[in-house]
Amino acid sequence: MTTGAQSSLATRVVRCLGVSVVSTVVSVTTLAALSAGFGVAAWIANITATSIATIPSYHLNRRWTWGQRGASDPLREVVPFWVLAFAGLALSTVFVALVDPWATHHHLTPVVHTGVVIGGHLSGFAALWAVQFVVLDRVLFRPTSRAMA
User: Fold this and answer.
1) pLDDT digits (tens, 9 = 90+) for 116-134
2) C-alpha separations of 137 from 77, 94, 99, 112, 133 in Å
């Protein structure tokens, strides 16, 4: 038997994972299009992809996952959310910067090379996902903050 709080936590985890899927599709599509389709350097494509994907991620997490309504608080919500996103970006960019020359050195086919770059991109964000969820759940969008607002 689960309590309401546990069910609510489970719902938030599932919804946050769902938002991650959406933002991952946006970022991976952008990354692949820029790097493979337009020849943009992998690290630049990675920064661009993350910047684009962070916008729907913020809004979907805020409204759907944590049920926040009304205007966003730039200092308490928006800036910390972007800091978290760009922490993932930093780690992701390091991974991409490491795997891109490796893939080039090994003369991987363009499809495999792009897959390796995308794998590096995803690894950085996957490594920080749990930390981000806890910060969003317990600090930025904590349920008690809704009651005080």
Assistant:
1) 988 988 888 888 888 899 9
2) 12, 27, 32, 37, 6
User: In this structure, what token pair is assigned to residue 69?
Assistant: 């309504």
How far does Cα 21 stand from its chain's mean position?
Answer: 9
Question: Of 53, 55, 65, which Cα lies nearest the Cα of 121?
Answer: 53
pLDDT at 77 over 70: yes
Q: Within 61-142, where are the H helices?
A: 79-105, 110-135
Alpha-carbon Rg for the chain in angstroms: 17
List, in order, residues 6 or more apart from 49 with CB less than 8 Å away: 26, 27, 28, 30, 31, 34, 121
DSSP string, 1-49: ---HHHHHHHHHHHHHHHHHHHHHHHHHHHHHIIIIIS---HHHHHHHH
CA 5 – CA 138 distance, rounded (Å): 13
Does the pTM of the predicted model rise above 0.85? no
- Asked whether the predicted pLDDT for residue 80 surpasses 80, the reply is yes
